[in-house]
Design a protein that fits this description.
Elements (H helix, E strand, L loop, with lengths): L2 H11 L3 E3 L11 E3 L1 H20 L15 E4 L8 H7 L1 H4 L1 E6 L6 E3 L4 E7 L2 E7 L6 H12 L11 E2 L4 E2 L9 E2 L13 E4 L3 E3 L9 E3 L5 H6 L1 H7 L6 E10 L14 E11 L4 H18 L7 E5 L12 E6 L10 E10 L1 H8 L30 E2 L6 E2 L2 E8 H12 E7 L5 E7 L10 E5 L6 H13 L4 E3 L5 H11 L3 E5 L1 H6 L1 E6 L5 E5 L3 H10 L8
Parallel strand pairs: 3-14, 7-10, 24-25, 24-26
Antiparallel strand pairs: 1-2, 4-5, 4-11, 6-7, 6-8, 6-9, 12-13, 14-15, 15-21, 16-17, 17-18, 18-21, 19-20, 22-23, 26-27, 27-28
Helix pairs in contact: 2-10
The structure holds glycyl-adenosine-5'-phosphate (GAP).
Length: 544
């Protein structure tokens, strides 16, 4: 089994992730977090919130920052006034290109469908496949052989182009064999497809009641800019953070939770003076990259990639992605974990005046079918006046926008490992271990009595009760202790505390470290403090 398949199977087996509505066959693009998964994802979000908001010290200049700054939080609604999405640009510009297959009636995202040119019997075709990177050649070959009416032993007669590539590189769709078709040319020309989920508010069933599920949490922050200024004492520069669900009707959700239709974002809108926005953009790029390495991602598999001009979103005048080499991607490819965008004054200006797209400025107001301006803003003053200089300006925004599910998935991928550990007889046996940073591990410690007698369970339960006041801990007295250790290794629990015969005499227990397998003896009275210290020993990274 490939590493990704093993991880997916572990996630299901140990209660990290389940397919949504599984008993009804599941719903593509939707995932449920199980008992361990919910703790892991909560810990990832909590670490982000603490590091970005509650533990941020507004009195000190952080390393690499141009100045000290304040951070506050918000929690906005998922459904907002529809005009928000007009002015944000999502209503008109938030789309992907899709193609439909006339034979299978299936729909695919134009840039995500991959295929490879192959020639046989004097004919050259582009064979597409839905298979994952590690099996795409196998799948394409099977389909090409079928198409050319050839047998497996004739595979050597197929002449392949060097690489798989995106369907968007193909200009003539009549040469394309769609993933679930048996003849060529069944795909339609690419068409725009808006990714926002539509719904209806209240008893109004027509377009009057139409609304959208938010495709990003960011807009809630922009439309509350004035409220935050008026209700707090923050002044520019400052950041507003939000964690919450977002929804996108992705055409081809795939790669486990990586591309889902319902997911969670952790976003910051950082408001600053236009003259300083470049420096802040630099600062946030480095700060956010460091966050992932500090929580355990390997710097070798992470990279910061600047977007090319033609890749920029409609609002952005500069974006860099933090990307991770997920194991489900082909060798050398990376997937986006977080985008850090320099949004200029686009959003505040759009919500104020209804102007949009910085690339198209100066812009004539577009009108809708009723002659109303399509991009009508709120008309509210969203500028900022500096109390010291009296200067009035529209702040620029730097936006570090992360996905909670993608970060959780990256931490899981990174943590998955296989090695050997001694069993009860001291013989080395293979084990699966999730080397999660203790700070985000779902269960911080497990407590075991070595045997279920001689007063050991009573002592173990007492320790468990004391730890439970502070951490999510687990008690287990079933099976041989070696098996119990292994179950915790697989769940990512960093410490196992065992009460043994010696504990009853000298009031000590052993603490076994998941990664080093070392056991140390600690006084029962010091266990809570010891575990607390180990979890808080900052900078844990299995690669250091
Ligand atoms: N406000 C800016 C914004 O939403 P984005 O690059 O579209 O930017 C930010 O999204 C982050 O949200 C991504 O880097 C990714 O981590 C996460 N994300 C976006 N679409 C997603 C999806 N379909 N499934 C899971 N996470 C997604």
């Amino acid at each position: 089994m490939m590493q990704m398949e093993k991880l997916v199977s572990l996630c299901k087996r140990r209660g990290y992730l389940f397919q949504s509505s599984e008993i009804y066959g599941g719903l593509n693009g939707f995932w449920d977090y199980g008992p361990l998964g919910v703790e892991l994802k909560r810990n990832v979000k909590e670490a982000w919130w603490q590091d970005m908001v509650t533990r941020h010290n507004e009195l000190a200049v952080p390393p690499g920052a141009p100045a000290a700054f304040e951070m506050v939080g918000l929690d906005c609604t998922i459904i907002m006034h529809p005009q928000v999405w007009k002015c944000s640009g999502h209503y008109d510009l938030f789309h992907d290109y899709m193609v439909d297959c006339k034979a299978s009636k299936r729909r695919y995202r134009h840039d995500q469908l991959r295929g490879r040119w192959v020639e046989a019997k004097g004919k050259r075709i582009f064979v597409t496949t839905l298979a994952e990177a590690d099996s795409e050649h196998e799948d394409a070959q099977r389909r090409a052989l079928k198409f050319f009416d050839m047998r497996g032993k004739d595979a050597g007669q197929l002449t392949w182009d060097a690489k798989f590539q995106s369907l968007s590189s193909v200009t003539d769709l009549s040469q394309v064999l769609a993933p679930e078709a048996n003849e060529l040319g069944t795909l339609t020309e690419p068409r725009e497809f808006n990714l926002m989920f539509k719904t209806y508010v209240g008893a109004l069933s027509g377009e009057e009641g139409a609304a959208f599920l938010r495709p990003e949490t960011a807009q809630g922050i922009f439309v509350n800019f004035k409220n935050v200024l008026d209700s707090t004492r923050v002044g520019i520069p400052f950041g507003v953070a939000q964690v919450g669900k977002s929804f996108r009707n992705e055409i081809t959700p795939r790669n486990f939770t990586f591309r889902s239709r319902e997911f969670e974002q952790m976003e910051i809108e950082f408001f600053c003076h236009p003259n300083q926005s470049r420096q802040w953009y630099e600062y946030w790029r480095q700060r956010r990259l460091k966050w992932y390495t500090q929580l355990g991602l390997d710097g070798q598999r992470l990279r910061l990639r600047e977007h090319a001009q033609d890749e920029l979103s409609h609002y952005s005048c500069g974006t860099a992605d933090i990307e991770y080499a997920f194991p489900f991607l082909p060798e050398g490819e990376y997937g986006e974990l977080e985008g850090i965008a320099h949004r200029g004054d686009f959003d505040l200006r759009s919500h104020m005046e209804g102007k949009l797209d910085p690339r198209k400025r100066p812009l004539e107001l577009e009108v809708d079918e009723n002659g109303q301006p399509k991009w009508r803003g709120s008309g509210k003053d969203l500028t900022y006046r500096d109390e010291q200089t009296n200067e009035r300006f529209t702040p620029h925004v730097i936006e570090p926008s992360a996905g909670a599910d993608r970060a959780t998935l990256a931490f899981l991928c990174e943590a998955y490992d296989e090695d050997e550990a001694p069993d009860d007889s001291g013989k080395m046996q293979s084990r699966v271990v999730l080397r999660l940073n203790p700070r985000i591990a779902p269960v911080k410690a497990a407590v075991f009595p070595l045997v279920k007698k001689d007063g050991m369970p009573e002592v173990a339960k007492e320790i468990y009760g004391a730890l439970k006041q502070k951490f999510n801990v687990f008690y287990d007295e079933k099976a041989a202790v070696g098996r119990r250790y292994r179950r915790q290794d697989e769940a990512g629990t960093p410490y196992c505390i065992t009460v043994d015969g010696q504990s009853l005499q000298d009031k000590t227990v052993t603490i076994r470290d998941r990664d080093t397998l070392q056991q140390s003896r600690v006084k029962i009275d010091d266990v809570v403090h010891e575990i607390e210290q180990r979890i808080n020993s900052c900078g844990y990274n299995k690669h250091q």
